[in-house]
Hints:
Elements: H1 12-31, H2 35-48, E1 52-53, H3 54-60, E2 69-74, E3 78-83, E4 93-99, E5 104-115, E6 118-126, E7 139-146, E8 152-157, H4 177-180, H5 184-187, E9 195-198, H6 209-222, E10 232-238, E11 243-245, E12 251-254, H7 257-272, E13 281-287, H8 304-315, H9 321-330, E14 332-336, E15 339-340, E16 362-365, E17 369-370, H10 381-393, E18 398-400, E19 410-411, H11 415-419, E20 424-429, E21 431-432, E22 440-443, H12 444-460
Parallel strand pairs: 1-2, 4-13, 4-14, 14-20, 15-21, 16-18
Antiparallel strand pairs: 2-3, 3-13, 5-6, 5-10, 6-9, 7-8, 7-10, 11-12, 12-22, 16-20, 17-19
Helix pairs in contact: 1-12, 7-12
Amino acid sequence: xxxxxxxxxxxxxxxxxxxxxxxxxxxxxxxxxxxxxxxxxxxxxxxxxxxxxxxxxxxxxxxxxxxxxxxxxxxxxxxxxxxxxxxxxxxxxxxxxxxxxxxxxxxxxxxxxxxxxxxxxxxxxxxxxxxxxxxxxxxxxxxxxxxxxxxxxxxxxxxxxxxxxxxxxxxxxxxxxxxxxxxxxxxxxxxxxxxxxxxxxxxxxxxxxxxxxxxxxxxxxxxxxxxxxxxxxxxxxxxxxxxxxxxxxxxxxxxxxxxxxxxxxxxxxxxxxxxxxxxxxxxxxxxxxxxxxxxxxxxxxxxxxxxxxxxxxxxxxxxxxxxxxxxxxxxxxxxxxxxxxxxxxxxxxxxxxxxxxxxxxxxxxxxxxxxxxxxxxxxxxxxxxxxxxxxxxxxxxxxxxxxxxxxxxxxxxxxxxxxxxxxxxxxxxxxxxxxxxxxxxxxxxxxxxxxxxxxxxxxxxxx
Length: 463
């Protein structure tokens, strides 16, 4: 089937909307380089649009009515948004679900050490990364340090113009003959991904004098001691802002687009339907830990979403265990996650007929998984037909794809977890080049079209 380039379908007015939306999205990427920062940024945005925190409603015992806008936050790393629809919750919701964690380096709990007058922070990489991509590039440090008294100290160093940056060193090419013979997975070992953070020694100190100087700076700037690293969550991410790419400025090059591109477009889609009361409740779930299996209290496998939905139904006078089960099984969902963009430079890894192309609109993946669809949700044909009708009737440009050739590799999303409730789920999102690299690329048109597709889904799915 012929694929359609979405750029050719836009009017002059729409082109202006594409550019404006891209700028807002890039600002979001700059503000949200960690899960916590994404949640903070989005909460500030949605509260301005009239969203009220669920806990406040629970404390006041307020009743909820169609059109109300409610949100809940889990451990500062997950966000769920509800816009209440006309129909009872037991008839199901229209759900957009994405993740806001991205591959990175995490600072270990006992990280500070010195070798040969260089101070380091020891790290452990998070998610699927090509480790050699993380050396010899500017890096920034984001996160929180929580002291024993409960005081939380926010750290954000490396992304402002006057900030210092950090880096992981690489072996100079002149001495790298043996290194260059290694497999790509072994060129840089995980334990070698240690962050260089200082080189000036403290005077009149014989041992670990550089480390002492770094710790003095942390004490003076943030009031933290070395022991406070034990209760810290510090993430090392590429330094620098999202940038337009290409002479035509058609693309966005930035860190963390997997999966913040789908997170932002999902949240914005829910805000866009806020001017009308939809038939079914519109919901957006943004979760943590997808890159390591959706585990833990902030991953999709936790009961947070289920618990918040139960609390919401209780306030609406609809809750029972059976009604909750009916709500979840009757819901429809787009598992909003990125897809691999077709890259002509590596064409042998793709099956061209079933690949996602940059500039060809939002992408639907009927299934993901690896090899024989292992770990996949695999949406049923009836639901795919329903989605096709929604997109075509809303003039949304879309394409379908799978994640590369059958036996080359693969990946998964949160789709299979939500499908456990018995709801219809399909994966969809934005095509990405350089996925999981420090800098990933998307097409502005695909980002905008995906937001349009999410809006159409929220208005029409399940009807």
